[in-house]
Amino acid sequence: MEETVARTVLCFGDSNTHGQVPGRGPLDRYRREQRWGGVLQGLLGPNWQVIEEGLSGRTTVHDDPIEGSLKNGRIYLRPCLQSHAPLDLIIIMLGTNDLKRRFNMPPSEVAMGIGCLVHDIRELSPGRTGNDPEIMIVAPPPMLEDLKEWESIFSGAQEKSRKLALEFEIMADSLEAHFFDAGTVCQCSPADGFHIDEDAHRLLGEALAQEVLAIGWPDA
């Protein structure tokens, strides 16, 4: 009897993929089963492998002048893809950190950063038999108005964050990638205004499981 090949999903994101607890430091993290990646794994079942690659402070394509080049998602993406290949699906949920005041980026250019990552994925073609994997762009939920002590870092980002979903959807359509707006199912926590809490992780994981299964996978 031929063994079923598990499908592999890579979740590439920032602290909201890593599972940072709202209002706490980057080392305060929800457990695997509480994070949206873990929820996704549980719902997809044993024939799927969900890999979490979340980093607090990660941007799409920018070196952080304070936290360093390691926060640049584009630099890490290629070795990450090669490390985990072959991949069936890559879910990208980034953009929040690009809205920090230090980068001075409009929402349209944040979407362009996402587009660069999609191009990089397709250039490498880390799917099975050297093909392109499926790609899903996820817009993070908009920030709340009250960002507590992080207000100075994200000054002006609240309004921009509300425009990310439309810009990401336009980018996804132009690149023929899948798209999901996380803001349709969850919101950021009032504890800090830009991280999602345990309930939001669960809701996002449940919604993404439906989106993943709806792609219409061929038999392995």
From TrEMBL:
Organism listed in the record: Rhizobium meliloti (strain 1021)
Residues in coiled coil: none
This protein's name: Hydrolase
SUPFAM superfamilies in the cross-refs: SGNH hydrolase
SGNH hydrolase-type esterase domain: residues covered: 11-202
Alphabetized GO MF terms: hydrolase activity, acting on ester bonds
Family annotation (InterPro entries): SGNH_hydro (IPR013830), SGNH_hydro_sf (IPR036514)
Keyword set includes ATP-binding: no
